[in-house]
Amino acid sequence: MSALSFDQRDGFIWMNGALVPWKDAKLHVLSHGLHYGSCVFEGERAYGGKIFKITEHSRRFKKSGEILDFEIPYSVAELDAAKQLVVEKNGFQSCYVRPVAWRGSEMMAVAAQNATIHVAICVWDWPSMFDTNEKMRGIRLDIADYRRPDPATAPCHAKAAGLYMICTISKHRAERKGYADALMLDWQGRVAECTGANVFFTKDGVVHTPIADCFLDGITRQTVIGLAKKRGIAVAERRIMPEEMATFDECFLCGTGAEVTPVSEAGPYRFTPGAISRTLIEDYTAEVNRKAG
Questions:
Q1: Is 63 an active-site residue?
Q2: How large is the average pLDDT for residues 110-126?
Q3: Residue 95 lies in a domain
Q4: With 0-12 CB in 10 A as exposed, 13-18 as middle and 19+ as buried, what is 84?
C-alpha cells in the first residue's frame, strides 16, 4: 500500500450525500465525535469491484448508530448504492471500504442530542496481502494487557470508534516487541479476540471460537463459521480460558483486513497451521471472489 498520507490522496469521498474531492472531505476540530467518541464505522472490502456482504455491513452500520443513540440519516439501500458508487468513481477493483458516521459540532458537551449526524464513505487500494503458502507460516501474537470490557460497561455490539482505543495501544505494544498483533482476553480473563480480528482454534478436527458477547460478532467471523459448517467441520462457540490454548492444534484469525490468517504463536503457546486453516483460507478466497463474479 502507498505510504502517502491519507489526507493527501487523490480521488473522491462520498460525504453527506455527495461526492467531494478527496482533499476537501474535512470536519471541524470541535466535532463531538472527535472529543467524545460519538462515532461509528465499518470495515468492508471489495473484490472484483463488488463489496463483499455489502448489505450486512450497511445494516450493522445503522445498528451501531442506534446503539450510540443516533440515527444515520440514510437507508440501507442508499448506503449500499453510495458505497458502490465510491468504489466505481475511484476506479478500484480490490479495495478497502470505510463508511463512518459521527456527531458534528453544534453542541460541545457530553450531551449532544441536537448535533448533526455526518456520514462519509472512503475507499483505498488494498489488494490481498499474502498468498496461501505465505499465510500458512502463521503470525505471532502477543497477549494484550488491556481486556475487552464487561458488556454492562460499554456498547460492545456497536462498531464504535471509542472501543478501539485499547486495541491501538495493544497493537502498538505488540509490534514494538516484534509481534504482528495482540490477543485480548475479556474482563473475566477468558480468550476474546485480537485487536481487529476474531480468533479461532482447532482440536481433533473441531473448530472452537469464543462466544461473541463482549466483542463484535464479525461478519467475516459469521462467514467463516458458515464455510466450516458447509465443509462438515463442527464449530463450538464457547468460553475458552488462556491455558486451554496449550491443547489446541491450530489457531487462525479472521476479519475484513486479515481475511483468514493462521497463527503460529500466542504468547507462550505454539500452534502448527494445518489442513483446517488452509481449507478455510481457500474457501474464503473462493467465496469472496464468487460473490464478486
A1: no
A2: 96
A3: yes
A4: middle
Contact 184, 193 (CB under 8 A): yes
Backbone angles phi, psi at 208, to 5 degrees: -120, 140
The catalytic residue among 53, 135, 159, 171 is 159
Q: Is the pTM of this model over 0.90?
A: yes
Q: What are phi and psi of 74, to 5 degrees?
A: -140, 145
- Judge whether residue 164 has pLDDT over 90: yes
Q: How many angstroms separate the most distant Cα atoms in the chain?
A: 57
165: domain CATH number is 3.20.10.10
Percent of the chain with pLDDT over 70: 97
* pLDDT tens track for 248-266: 999 999 999 999 999 999 9
CA distances from 28 to 31, 37, 87, 102, 212 (A): 5, 14, 26, 11, 35
3-state secondary structure of 80: helix
- What is the C-alpha to C-alpha distance for residues 187 and 26, in angstroms, rounded to an integer? 37
pLDDT digits (tens, 9 = 90+) for 30-49: 999 999 999 999 999 999 99
For the chain, the helix, strand and coil percentages under 3-state DSSP, each to the nearest 5: 30, 30, 40
In a domain, 225, yes or no: yes
